[in-house]
Task: structure prediction
Amino acid sequence: MTVTLSRFRLSRLLLWLGLICLLLALWQWQQGIQASVQLAAHARAANLPPQALAEVEQGAHPQGQRVWLTVRASGHSVRVANASLQGRDGVREWQPVQLLDGSWVVIDRGWLARPAPLLQLPLPAGRLTGRWVARPAQPEGMRVRVGLSGEVDVLDWPVLARQLPGPLREGLVVLDPALRPYRSWPVLPQLDPALHRQRAGWLLAVAAGCLLLARLLRRRPA
Result:
């Protein structure tokens, strides 16, 4: 009786584990589909002619589209650390600028390798072109430096939005081409549909194994 009860509990545990793995496999598969859709949309946006960001609705969200802008005014720039490019540590320089419609957006002037010199270069007159992308994910940790000047790990977006004399648009405009001596930061989303599909396959195999063992334990005589 005790052996039968233990076998029943083990089979039920395997059943629940199999169902959980099955749900996780489905979730990973959906994540892979979404990643493929986002990469395709990003590729299509790269081939479209640039549009004036000042003419885009202020509530719109960036999708990697090419944009151009004319700077009406600008704020102080900030250096964002922990920017590794091609195996080299460096910094990215971000700066809020005002568009012709009075709204503001943060531009990524480009990347500099360490040791990065302190530059105070004015923005050139005329049009600036780049890719309008979503804000990068914020690093986590107790020692993360959040601020609006100097060198930080995270730009303080809420405080910046409150300080600017106009609405702050979503996202970040990564200049392309970058202003010399900076280098343009790559804007391809860090997405890997194949990795999600691979994880879905692993989870599906684990789910099948758990469900099969659960069935065998229930059918096996005590």
